[in-house]
Amino acid sequence: MPPAAPPPPGPNRLLVAAIAVGCLLSGSAIWLLDSPDNLWCGPLIRTGLVMGALWLALPTKGRAAAWANVSWIWVVLIAGALFLMVKRPLVLVPIFLGLMVLSAFAGKSSNKK
Q: What 8-state DSSP symbol labels residue 59?
């Protein structure tokens, strides 16, 4: 029996951090030097914030990923909070159902012995 292949490498934390900082600095520079109404200012700042959040959530050598130990209670509470915050909460129902189906298959392994 051949040895199992190593898992594919995850996202590079340093690269994610560099992209986040670069986007935030670029967006801030455009905002300060040109105008907040510039076409590139908003998307660069939003992308930098999302990449920064991803960088915080990625696993390190000393700890697992931020979402590795999330309980179902928190998932239900966040879903309930989203239902209360949006104008048309029925739009979220198919999204949550799709995520539930995907999460059911996420832990399954395709390795056959």
A: -
